[in-house]
Design goal:
Elements lengths: L1 H27 L6 H29 L3 H29 L3 H15 L1 H27 L8 H21 L7 H29 L22 H10 L7 H19 L18 H8 L1
Helix pairs in contact: 1-4, 1-5, 1-6, 1-7, 2-5, 3-5, 3-7, 4-5, 7-9
Length: about 290
């Protein structure tokens, strides 16, 4: 449940920030007449995202005949979700400082073209977050009980929280360190993605694509009792199960450890430009000459 709330909060806040940047730019530039076109683009993106989520669920539950086909479909969507999560958290870490300027530049170009361009620009700015949310939510919520509305409510709660935070940020009633926010939520999402990847490997094994389904890495069912509140909590958050296969654990570690290290590693500081008239220094070469 926490995982789906986190997905809604993270993805929702990204979309909310994008919309607030667009709205603020139009308001400050006295182009309020274009606000309905922005909201139209946002609305179309939301509708398409919901339809995409419904299509994924419909495909899995109705269009596939055998359990092997469903397991294979779920495995592929899990891997796709992991790819999207990984790309998204690294992209946001890199683009967080420049996203506002880029959006303003694109919106300026769209305003020069006309209403349709403004609607299309707003649609494209939001649709990526919506499609990612639908895919990641489906992959993260599959391990929970059927006919359980909890994951959907948790996702809605995360999105609602993000909208409130975005509105408070827009009116400057709330100041939070977005860099730290996206760092902490990004680290948690890496653990969520590792669990999704682990679940995807399990689905590949159940579909017969990968071997070793019954070759367990360990069995702690006596401690992590299936059906207990804490087992459900750990399974819902990070897909921790009491008897995973060896291949599942290899996949979890192979994803979580290197991705987490790369994500938390501080980016290298840019080289300091030489002062006017001062020749640039090749530090490695100078060091070799001194040696």
């Amino acid at each position: 449940m926490f995982a789906t709330y986190l997905i809604g909060l993270r993805e929702g806040l990204e979309a909310t920030l994008v919309v607030s940047i667009l709205v603020a730019f139009l308001v400050k530039s006295d182009r309020r007449n274009r606000l309905p076109h922005v909201w139209l683009g946002v609305g179309l993106a939301v509708v398409l995202s919901v339809l995409f989520g419904w299509l994924i669920e419909y495909t899995s539950t109705t269009m596939l005949d055998t359990s092997e086909e469903r397991e294979l479909f779920d495995a592929v969507t899990s891997v796709a979700a992991v790819v999207f999560v990984t790309w998204m958290i690294f992209w946001m870490r890199k683009a967080a400082r420049s996203i506002a300027g880029e959006l303003r530049g694109k919106l300026t170009e769209a305003l020069a073209v006309g209403a349709v361009a403004v609607t299309g620009m707003a649609f494209l700015a939001v649709i990526r977050e919506g499609l990612e949310t639908a895919l990641i939510f489906y992959s993260a919520a599959r391990g929970l009980a059927d006919n359980n509305s909890g994951p959907l409510l948790a996702l809605a709660g995360g999105i609602a929280t993000s909208v409130v935070l975005g509105f408070l940020l827009y009116i400057s009633a709330l100041k939070i360190n977005l860099s730290k926010f996206f760092t902490w939520t990004g680290a948690l999402l890496i653990l969520v993605a590792a669990g999704i990847f682990k679940y995807g490997v399990h689905d590949f094994q159940e579909a017969g694509v990968l071997p070793g389904l019954n070759n367990h890495a360990f069995d702690i069912t006596s401690v992590l009792v299936p059906g207990s509140w804490y087992a459900t909590l750990l399974s819902g958050m990070f897909n921790i199960t009491p008897a995973p296969s060896v291949l599942e654990m290899v996949a979890w570690v192979a994803y979580a450890v290197p991705v987490m290290v790369l994500f938390l590693r501080k980016p290298a500081a840019p080289a300091k430009p030489a002062a006017p008239g001062e020749p640039a220094t090749d530090a490695p070469a100078a060091a070799r000459q001194r040696a």
